[in-house]
Write a structure and sequence with these properties.
With about 230 residues, the protein is an alpha+beta fold. The chain is about 55% helix and about 15% strand. The two termini are about 60 Å apart.
């Protein structure tokens, strides 16, 4: 069964194809209207020193040996981006989510210092998407404090986490909506063409059987006439 065979069958059985296409469009439109979009927000936080601008890691082991923040931000991302933290924040699986990284889209991954935390969120609620950004920064701030307290870092030598870009206004992400709509339309169209092909096959088979029976009956009728006709005596 090739694509051209399907198309020819769909054209021959247009009375199935046309209503099927219209029904496919109606179903796709319904999916588009009823599948809720996701909303995305983002924020950026940065690690800062309180007093000593070059706190060595012997005083604060959270800081890298070269005095950079890359080690600290990497530790925080690994501690926060876990199912446990997401559950503690009350995120609903499949509805709410976030990602956190110490490397931005325009930041080089190798070399240099990475003091920033880049947070992106998604939620089925626009308000929730911005709340998750604030919640993640609060969790990161608490994790940083706990790490330094466990390492017995003096308060004056501790580093802080500050928000530099607050949660951005929620933006609708239509990717899921478009994907669901396209999938529904594609499935219905394929089903329509398949039904047209199956019906065309059934009709064609019925026509062949009819032709075969008609030919058989005609032959039997002809044979009976030959047998019934009187023979000429020479």
């Amino acid at each position: 069964m090739s694509l051209s065979t399907l198309l020819r069958a769909a054209l021959r059985r247009w009375y199935i194809t046309v209503p099927g296409i219209l029904l496919s469009l109606i179903i796709a439109s319904t999916v588009f209207n009823y599948v809720p979009p996701k909303y995305a927000s983002s924020g950026i936080a940065v690690l800062v020193r309180q007093n000593n601008p070059t706190v060595p890691n012997t005083i604060n082991p959270i800081v890298g040996s070269d005095g950079t923040f890359t080690t600290a931000t990497l530790t925080l991302t690994q501690a926060i981006d876990t199912p446990t933290v997401k559950a503690e924040l009350g995120l609903k699986e499949g509805a709410d989510d976030f990602s956190i990284s110490n490397v931005g889209k325009t930041t080089a991954t190798d070399g240099g210092d990475h003091p920033f935390l880049y947070i992106t969120t998604q939620s089925s609620s626009p308000q929730k998407s911005t709340e998750i950004v604030d919640d993640v920064i609060a969790v990161a701030r608490q994790k940083l404090t706990d790490l330094q307290n466990d390492a017995k870092v003096k308060p004056q030598n501790q580093i802080r986490l500050e928000s530099v870009v607050d949660a951005t206004p929620p933006k609708a992400v239509m990717t899921i909506v478009y994907a669901a709509t396209g999938a529904a339309l594609l499935f219905c169209m394929v089903a329509t063409f398949f039904v047209a092909y199956v019906w065309d096959t059934i009709v064609a088979a019925g026509q062949k059987r009819y032709v075969h029976r008609s030919a058989s009956h005609a032959k039997e009728h002809a044979d009976s006439r030959v047998r019934a006709s009187p023979r000429k005596i020479s």
